[in-house]
Write a structure and sequence with these properties.
- The structure is a homodimer.
- Chain A is 18% helix and 22% strand.
- Chain A is α+β, with helices and mostly antiparallel strands.
- The first copy, chain A, has a six-stranded mixed β-sheet with strand order 6-5-16-9-10-12, covered by helices on one side.
- In chain A, strand 14 and strand 15 form a beta hairpin.
- In chain A, helix 3 crosses helix 7.
- The interface between A and B is large, with 59 and 59 residues.
Chain lengths: 344, 344
Amino acid sequence: MSTAGAPPSAGRPPNETRFKKGGRDGTLIVVSRDLKHAAAAAHIAPTLQAALEDWATVEPELKSLYRLLNEGLLSGAFALDVTALAAPLPRAYQFLDGSAYLNHVELVRKARGAELPPSYYDDPLMYQAVSDGFLGPTDDILAATTDWGIDFEAELTVVLDDVPMGIKREAAGRHIKLFMLVNDVSLRGVIPAELAKGFGFVVGKPRSALSPVAVTADEFGDAWDGEKLHLPLVVTLNGRKFGSPNVGVDCNFSFARLIEHAAQSRPLATGTIIGSGTVSNKDASVGFCCLAEQRTIETIETGKPKTPFMSFGDTVRIEMLDRAGHSIFGAIEQKVVKYAGPGA
Amino acid sequence: MSTAGAPPSAGRPPNETRFKKGGRDGTLIVVSRDLKHAAAAAHIAPTLQAALEDWATVEPELKSLYRLLNEGLLSGAFALDVTALAAPLPRAYQFLDGSAYLNHVELVRKARGAELPPSYYDDPLMYQAVSDGFLGPTDDILAATTDWGIDFEAELTVVLDDVPMGIKREAAGRHIKLFMLVNDVSLRGVIPAELAKGFGFVVGKPRSALSPVAVTADEFGDAWDGEKLHLPLVVTLNGRKFGSPNVGVDCNFSFARLIEHAAQSRPLATGTIIGSGTVSNKDASVGFCCLAEQRTIETIETGKPKTPFMSFGDTVRIEMLDRAGHSIFGAIEQKVVKYAGPGA
């Protein structure tokens, strides 16, 4: 099932009386498998966050609507411009970004001349990321200066319902309700000094963009084995393919393991997003999900990086295709634009 | 003005039709200055988060209700048990905790044998903290084991409306809408290894508790100078006074400066909470707002800490009194309780 948070301007607005003004949380719609049509779902739950808070009741109703939509049996369905959608969760109460692909961590640290401690292979690396606002899939990446070293990071994420404190890996997987893609925008010029302060990211990781739609696991067919998703994540930079690492390859930690880690000392609230970290395969011939890895490979090979970070006007596209070549989540496609300042 | 998010069980439930089931965001009430009475405010805004999202419209209505309540002119007012209240924001989209009191940072690092880099005096230390759930002011602190090294941290916080990216300090202060106290629960036995991983806190800082009510700046009278609040924060441990450092003393960064820091690369959404960090005065005779500082002083003086971290059954109370001795926010008062596990 594919759901999305439509901005007030997208498609035919469903039952206006049911959603609050302002649109800070979007409006729930159900999107057809081919991403070409949608149906209002605000009569079931006004927003995706509200749906997640009552998922056991809401999911069967949304699935029923989804089936009718895919079969062309809904008179109220409307044509959808998937590029006009807001993030499925335009804001969330929590985004915990893991580093499930230690190959990424190894490479990025290698570029800084740092080693990976052995404990990293047992104890997941994770940080509390920005969740008070997510960019829509085609929103610009605003930056004051390219000195920030603007990079993308293509990741898979899951969205959870309520997770009790102290949950074990074996029980954690059942709290995964939805999947989304994320572009975890990273400011490589800012991060080293910020991390050196010892408290993680505040300035170096600004708002991330989410894919147009969020989907349930059944959309992956047998590509999802219950723990890992065996499909490539395709990254295109300025129209040229940059990488397509497989999400199921060289993944050191399952989402269930990441949830277990996050919930050690506290429960996780419904709508919590867990990120995989930058997808990264050891086979460099498949390319990369961020510029930093490409630059690290160049540094290792030639002594210095050749590929620049993103400039104003550069565009990154992140998408996942199923085995039939169909876009599962719709594409994140973002341009880097100079920020004119708070007064503009 | 004092506002709070009442749990469904507190006081007379105001206009039930106006709030959504589940109570994940509490129900807005206005609380009298003496914290003894309250009035339903859900007809103005269902929750504090909703009020903040429309503050310019909502604030005059709430202030009018507050005035009538304080003057005893509201027939619908009810007696309030302030200890039964939920957190004013039972969940929030963002909690950025600063370290405005470098004396705290200096002391805690000194105990770890670490020095404070000079840049810390210009560039605020801040981390992205847990906001998907806040404990109510009298909720237990649940811990699986005291090996976690359970500590409290008493802080002042502010709640913001929408802050544009790139805002400067001079313009930032006007986005401060409300103040709350927080007990930033810290697991000293977990933190060193977690921080050593370089990505900040996930497990070492579990859910924090907020004061019963949130107040506007006018409640402080001239104790608030527009930048800093000149009142002591009183911490009591198991019924004995532990410390009362003054929030306005040895504060290296104003909230406006912390907001400027946080918003460098992104906007901050309405309802963002900014924490001051543990309040700490250089004059150790006023006592402390966390156990770690007391232990550091003992280590410096005698070679090892004498004061233990919190044990099961220990209670910490955090409160701020105005110059007339009246409790401004109501008290945070929490007991440490052993967590029985996710199956219990």
